[in-house]
Amino acid sequence: MSDKFLFINRELSWLDFNERVLELSKERRFPLMERLKFISIFSNNLDEFFMIRVAGVIDQIELGYDKKDRAGLTPKEVLHYIRKKVERLLKKQGKYFFLIKAQLKKHSVFIEDKFSECVSEFCELVFEQTILPAISPVTLSASNPFPFIYNKRSAFIVEMEKEGKEYVSVVIIPDKLKKIYVKDIGDKRYVFTLEHIVANKLNELFKNYKIKDYYIIRVTRDADLTIEEEGSEDLLLLVEQELDKRRKGQIVRVEINKKPSKKIEKLLMDNLKIEKKYIYETFDFIDLTSFFDFKVENKNLYFKPFKSYYPNRVKPDSSIFDYIKNNDILLYRPYNDFSFISKLVETAANDEMTLSIKMTIYRVNKDSSIVKNLIKAAENGKSVCVVIELKARFDEQMNVEWAKELENAGCIVTYGIPGLKVHTKNILITRNENGRIVEYSHIATGNYNEETAKIYTDLDYITAKEDIGIDNANIFNYLMGYTDYEKWRKIALAPNYLRKKLIKLIDNEIITAKTSAKGHIIIKVNSLIDEKLIEKLYEASQAGVKVDLIVRGVCGLKTDIKGVSENIRVVSIVGRFLEHPRVFYFYDNGNERVFISSADFMERNMDRRVESMIEIDEPVLKRRLFKLLKLHFNDNVNAWQLNGDKYKKIKAAGLRRVDSQAYYLEKKF
Predict the structure, then answer these.
(1) What positions carry a catalytic annotation?
(2) In 247-338, which ranges are continuous DSSP H helix?
């Protein structure tokens, strides 16, 4: 197990995942605008990768850390391979983007980089009335130093000449301006990026100068917040103070639209304080993240809309509590309608019998009806307690704002346990039913975000079982009162108990395999990089346990290692919806146990977060979950298989097509 070649580097595995996302943009079975959206998602993913993961690798290098990881790579080697992979992916992205761009012309959608006569007046108007008043060129001189460029901000580097003298000017593109401008002429839609409008108007911006050349750059900075909670009296204030630093962190990448001259390369290196290896050549459409929200009216260029549904015989009204008392509910979003959970909170907020509502918040949408109904519940006299994770990456500002609103409404708001992120997703509704206290629990694998619930697959479990209600209540006591609890009935909680529980379950399969020659584990997660759990899965494979892993993203485990992982299969499902549930199955000598969890198999989830795992023991619900797992392993449309440390797309050629996502769009969960 000490062999360094048993593991795949996390950063390089993540880039493999993002390549699988990029490959969706050339899927002919997907409509063109959806394919364009996957190009945008790929770009946004890459932004976050550089802001967090690459920034961390650079920190290690600058601190002189040169120890090899379990994949046998030093930080310098990791950065080298990251660059090689990213350069290859950027070329592929450009190829796919221009292919989509060309195909959109057939549908009268023209993504332009040059002005044609029919739209020149429109672009002239946009430039003069909207863009020109907002930009301020800085021509470099002794009195005009190179201006500061904030994170994810674009800028022009313009080389000019006047009266035989050469100049360089920097034009920073304001962040608040629209990124895309659209002009409809008849049935044709012309589309321009902000950068291309500026590029075509540089001569008007620099009158009396001769424009020799220009470059468009985009800066990415370290955006990982360093929040030292120890000794802090006000975490809310501390997070607000740290947020401003995100815009000003160390530069980790500079994108440039074409190969720079030696002069411009040196200018960037000297003024941005970067090495050459941080400069990445892209193409003229330098920021493709902006195309995520770009829309056209042709419905044929999008996925056909589908209607989510509530479970059979279940209605979100005042009688819902009577139903839950007699029936556990398991929802599979987006196929099941997540608004059921929103309506459940609304019903509790207006229900006379409701005494209290407790909830954890990690990520919610901007106009969250769930949070608004928590506020309404407080105004209606209910006791409302909310644990908000202020350090949810890239959602910190929104969570700060919600925290203030909830407090102003009279809710009790806390921020969890110092040093730990609260990632478990729980609601506890307590009612006084004719003198009897009944607790209703909701435990989920995904966030309470009504927007992402439409495109992320996740599981929601709702029950009135007393033992689960007790466990759920103790989670909130732990989060708000720091009262540790050891006698968990149905829930295993990280950081103290979850890994131990998982190892015990895997050990049980190892014992079963050795005694009855049969053991089976199925794990569905987003990421698998926890070394202790990987080693335990290797051990299970060596004992003859069949190990089936459905890992959407990062996977640090290698398959097909003789004597180590020959009994392990890994597939990654990447399709229309982002696969997000965590589901664990253990054969258990025929007892067949199934769990759902908020936790991935990552060290941070096991050791530095509050996570929950709950066993689903209702036979009907267990069968549904097992069917879900089996369907994913039979998928030959959205699945990639890991062979050693390389992924290969599974093809349905000669086989019956099995699309695990399309299946649940047609048939009920």
Answers:
(1) 423
(2) 262-272, 320-326
- What angle, 0 to 180 degrees and rounded to 10, lies between the N-to-C axes of helices 10-23 and 32-48? 160
- CA distances 34 to 26, 127, 135, 291, 298, Å, are 10, 29, 33, 10, 12
Task: Identify whether the C-beta of residue 420 lies closer than 8 Å to the C-beta of residue 393.
Answer: no
In the numeric block, which tokens belong to residue 622?
């267990």
Contact 636, 651 (CB under 8 A): yes
Enclosing H/E stretch for 157: strand 154-162
Extract the tokens encoding 206: 């620099």
Q: Are 210 and 370 in contact (CB under 8 A)?
A: no
Question: Count of alpha carbons within 13 Å of 229, Cβ hemisphere only?
Answer: 12
**pLDDT score recorded for residue 551:** 98
CA distance 394 to 421: 14
Give all domains of the chain, ordered by start, each with its CATH number. 4-301 (3.30.1840.10), 320-489 (3.30.870.10), 494-666 (3.30.870.10)
Q: What pairs with residue 579 in β-bridges?
A: 457
What is the 3-state secondary structure of 244-256?
A: HHHCCCCEEEEEE
Chain position carrying tokens 């033992």: 467
As beta bridge partners, residue 642 has 647
Structural Rg of the chain based on CA atoms: 27
Q: Is pLDDT at 273 greater than 70 in this prediction?
A: yes
CB atoms within 10 A of CB 414: 16
- Only one residue has tokens 């399309």, namely 662
Helix/strand/coil (H, E, C) string of 210-257? EEEEEEEEEEEECCCCCCCCCCCCCHHHHHHHHHHHHCCCCEEEEEEC
d(CA 152, CA 254): 10
Q: Is the pLDDT of residue 1 over 80?
A: no
Choice between 542 and 485, residue whose per-residue pLDDT is larger: 542
Q: What is the mean pLDDT of the chain?
A: 92
First to last CA, the chain: 40
Residue 234 is predicted with a pLDDT of 64
What's the CA gap between 341 and 347, in Å, rounded?
Answer: 10
| Type of residue found at 542 | Q
- What is the rounded (10 degree) CA torsion for 522, 526, 528, 529? -170
- Please give the C-alpha separations between residue 229 and each of 182, 416, 485, 652, in angstroms, as whole numbers: 46, 11, 23, 51
DSSP 3-state of 662: helix
3-state secondary structure of 663: helix
| Phi and psi at residue 278, to the nearest 5° | -90, -5
Q: Are strands 412-414 and 383-388 parallel, antiparallel or unpaired?
A: parallel
Nearest to 15 by CA among 651, 655, 483, 645: 645
Q: 435: left (phi > 0), else alpha (psi -120 to 50), else beta?
A: left
Cα–Cα distance for residue pair 521/529, rounded to 1 Å: 17
Q: What is the pTM of this model?
A: 0.93
The whole-angstrom distance between residue 556's C-alpha and the CA centroid of its chain comes to: 18
- Name beta bridge partners: 465: none
* SS3 sequence of 80-99: HHHHHHHHHHHHHHHHHHHH
Q: Above 80 in pLDDT, residue 4?
A: no
- Report the pLDDT averaged over residues 469-482: 93
The 3-class secondary structure across 436-456, one letter per residue, is EEEEEEEEECCCCCCCHHHCE
